[in-house]
Design a protein that fits this description.
Elements: H1 5-36, H2 40-43, H3 58-65, H4 67-98, H5 106-118, H6 123-132, H7 150-162, H8 165-173, H9 178-189, H10 191-207, H11 210-215, H12 224-232, H13 235-242, H14 253-287
Length: 290
Amino acid sequence: MGLDRGEKIFNVFNVIFMLFFIAIIVLPLINIIALSFNDGYDAMKGGIYLFPREFTLVNYETILKDTTIYRAFGVTIAKTVIGVIGHLVITGAAAYALSKSYLLGRKIFIRMGVITMFFNGGMIPSFLVAKSLGLTNSFWVYIIPVLFSFYDMIILMNFFRSLPDSIEESAKIDGASVLQVFFKIIVPLSFPVLATIALFHGVYQWNDFFVAKLYVTDKSLYPIQYYLYQLLTSAGAANSAKAGVYISKAFTTQSLQQATMIVTTLPIMLIYPFLQKYFISGMLVGGVKE
């Protein structure tokens, strides 16, 4: 059965809209890549272009000669890996417990959690709490405050409730403990949802710079995104030039900023395609309650 005229017109407009939407996302990224490989002084002439007008690798050489970026990458990788693992364990354990209707006080815990989704203490109280706990100027300030997310817990809890009770009952009959049931049965069955949560939290940990700006003054604990933030404010680029990291007529603050954006974004762009197949399925099975 062929499409009628209305459906054909809709498909044409749909394709045009999607192509336009893709263009406004992809073209700025291509422009940034072109700028990152372009001579800095030529880039200052302005204009939007998709290929370098004067190709150079000076911008990337400048970044890679600065040892600060390697330390920042190390901090970011560490906080992303540790943060994701800790987040999955704590949030997953809470979701598994609250998915059981026989848990005492379950409804009270859930209602209290919903309140936290709409209200929080604010920046100053959060800073005072972190300071009183000794988390300021500590690596753990990146990890502990975000070990638990009620939103992620709701997604996991809905998925756990959709699993047949017979699976756990069979395991318990065979002598499995609660921890064995959770880690050996529930977790493997929940991989699509867990991968989705890991992607969400991993992207947050990788992109976050505000925590470092607010709680950390020790430069050895700065993540890569705060390093980029300093460059974007021009202060970091000026300091690098003054320190003699790499000085060339082809080097400008603007071109260095674009190159740093690419370097900091590339790892997460390379990882995302491997987790993309779990993203939609994880959101569907975790977000739909039957």
